[in-house]
Amino acid sequence: MHGLMMNMPLNISSLIRHADRYHGDTEIVSRLVEGGIHRYTYHDAHRRSRQLANALGALGVKPTDRIGTLAWNGHRHFEIYYASSGSGAVCHTINPRLFPEQVVYIVNHADDRCVFFDLTFLPLVEKLAPHCPGVKNWVVMTDKAHMPESSLPLMCYEDLVNAHSDDYEWPDIDENAASSLCYTSGTTGNPKGVLYSHRSTILHAYGACMPDALNLSARDVVLPVVPMFHVNAWGLPYSAPLVGAKLVFPGAQLDGASLTALFDTEKVTCSAGVPTIWLGLLQHMEANGLRFGSLNRTVIGGSACPPAMIRTFEDRYGVQVLHAWGMTEMSPLGTVNTFKNRHLVWPKEQRDALQNKQGRVIFGVDLKIVDDDGKELPRDGKAFGDLLVRGPWICREYFKGEGGNPLRDGWFPTGDVATLDEDGIMQITDRSKDVIKSGGEWISSIDLENAAVAHPSVAEAAVVGVFHPKWDERPLLLVVKKPGAELTREEMLKFFEGRVAKWWIPDDVVFVDSLPHTATGKLLKTKIRDDFKNHKLPGA
User: Fold this and answer.
1) Residues 339, 424: Cα–Cα separation, whole Å
2) CA distances from residue 247 to 81, 158, 197 in whole angstroms, order as listed
3) Cα–Cα distance between 483 and 490 in angstroms, integer?
4) Which of 53, 62, 187, 521 is the most exposed place for a label (fewest CB within 10 A)?
5) Torsion angle of alpha carbons 235, 313, 337, 353, nearest 10°?
6) Among this protein's residues, is 314 annotated catalytic?
7) Are 324 and 337 in contact (CB under 8 A)?
8) What residues does each domain of the chain span?
């Protein structure tokens, strides 16, 4: 016997329709690539999304066709999200920070029919186009006054939108139909596509808004620093309309000065981004003696947030840090570090230690850790093993079956090594390929990096394992010093004493001008390991 409830499909178009109907006068603010600030409302965004849906139809776009984007966070990109998915096509956000060869591969593998791009990326598009014959239309996301000269037959976004009416009814779409496509950053091998559905996207948006997750509401002003080409800006372009929050899009300017100006003028309450972005912002704040006005919380994920950064945000600036974890394959949200009642009365030092972890699992995600034989390990906060996940917004296979079936007995292997405790609080101890195995024991490179960054002279740090004739591997620390800072190898190594186990302390320190990062801002450990694979440790 079935329940007697209406069978309404969970469609992405329902989010923008709801935002228009019940939050129609709420603003969406964008810093334009062309310069200046653009302001309009959810009502305007909905109207223009319907115009764009008509325009896509006029271009011959059919359901399931992929619509590519090479764009920053802005109102036009937001419209493409809804016009493409809402009309039955698939919104394919492309990371422009990848190597051009990878972008060509991704566009062709996805079979993109149209590609919309910001002016910033015209030089990239002119390199890509000859190698992407399947793309029928290259659309510049600008107005007629700013259309660039090019040998390519380009279309103007504003002309395209304005040529069509907003008389468009969003179709009812099977909620399990594909809605959007993101590719992994591809640090090893070719990037793989993760194909989200309308259902998974709506459920993820609901989960992200919950009080013990990102705690979003109509009273918030949300500025996603995380790019819309990085796992759909962690779902914020869907979560914000769901609750009617004001959206502020920063465009291409992600430096500390530009972000703090937007925070102040738009009275931003919540933001989200990777640690490397916040590093630059905090340095700008400190150098100029600035304070946050309205900002009360920020979501930090993408890679482990250094404890020193959490303490700076919270203790110096009074901004709550929501330490979060997820993956492209998870839409991406998996855990958020919010406390239970009993944690609130813990001594500050104990609470700080807890907040360094990646947080509590949210409903919609199930976690477990297993040993090398696949046996589940206890949730005691001590045992650590391979982290597996499952849930309604987690990938079951990659687009076009690339890489075969990734699941292990119905669970997705994250590639992370982690601990779990009885409260469902998870801590990543390392990536499985980054963990350092010394004398048969594991050393967490993340813990060592976090300890190093706590030094007042250290801007960024990375730890990799290098060959040792006796112990197989020992940790090597690479350090980027803050501008003008003085720091010696001996001072750095002494700083670890009392902070980590003695046998964990790195065997050597190398000072570097910069560290390589992936296209999503994570440390590029594969290149670091390759660059230092022949490094000779003292006394080895």
Assistant:
1) 11
2) 14, 21, 23
3) 19
4) 62
5) 150
6) no
7) yes
8) 11-250, 434-531
* Tokens coding 170: 């969003």
CA–CA distances in Å: residue 166 to residues 18, 63, 241: 17, 19, 19
How far apart (Å, rounded) are the C-alpha atoms in residues 321 and 349? 16
Beta bridge partners of 389: 367, 412
Element holding 179 (H helix, E strand): strand 178-183
The answer, yes or no, to whether residue 429 has pLDDT greater than 90, is: no
Confidence of residue 469 (pLDDT cuts 50, 70, 90): confident
Cα-based angle 144, 166, 146 (whole degrees, multiple of 5): 10
Q: What gap in Å lies between CA 325 and CA 61, rounded to an integer? A: 35
Three-state DSSP state, 154: strand
Express each pLDDT in 218-256 by its tens digit.
999 999 999 999 999 999 999 999 999 999 999 999 999
In this prediction, what percent of the chain has a pLDDT beyond 70? Answer: 99
Alpha helices in 424-524 (DSSP H): 445-453, 489-495
Question: Which of 26, 69, 93, 184 is the catalytic position?
Answer: 184
Class of domain 11-250 (CATH, top level): alpha beta
449 is catalytic: no
The helix (run of H) or strand (run of E) holding residue 460 is strand 458-468
Candidate list 79, 175, 266, 329, residue with the active-site label: 329
Cα 19 from Cα 427, distance rounded (Å) = 36
Name the residue with tokens 């492209």.
328
Phi, psi of 174 (to 5 degrees): -55, 125
Output the six-digit token pair for 340. Answer: 């239970």
As a whole number of angstroms, the distance between CA 100 and CA 112 comes to: 16
Locus of tokens 């906060």: 381
Residue type, 162: N
| DSSP secondary structure of 29-65 | EEE-TTSSEEEEEHHHHHHHHHHHHHHHHHTT--TT-
Give the pair of three-digit tokens for residue 118.
């910001």
Q: And the tokens for 477?
A: 């620390």
Percent of the chain predicted with pLDDT > 90: 85
Token representation of residue 520:
């999503």
- Distance from chain centroid for Cα 87: 26
**Catalytic residue check, 471:** no
Return the CATH number of 434-531, one of 3.30.300.30, 3.30.200.20, 3.30.465.10, 3.40.50.720: 3.30.300.30
Q: Which H or E element spans position 461?
A: strand 458-468
What lies within 8 Å, CB to CB, of 299 at 6+ separation is: 214, 234, 270, 271, 272, 273, 322, 324, 336
pTM of the model: 0.87
**Of 41, 126, 442, 526, which is the active-site residue?**
442
pLDDT tens profile 117-166 = 999 999 999 999 999 999 999 999 999 999 999 999 999 999 999 999 99
pLDDT, tens only, 162-179: 999 999 999 999 999 999
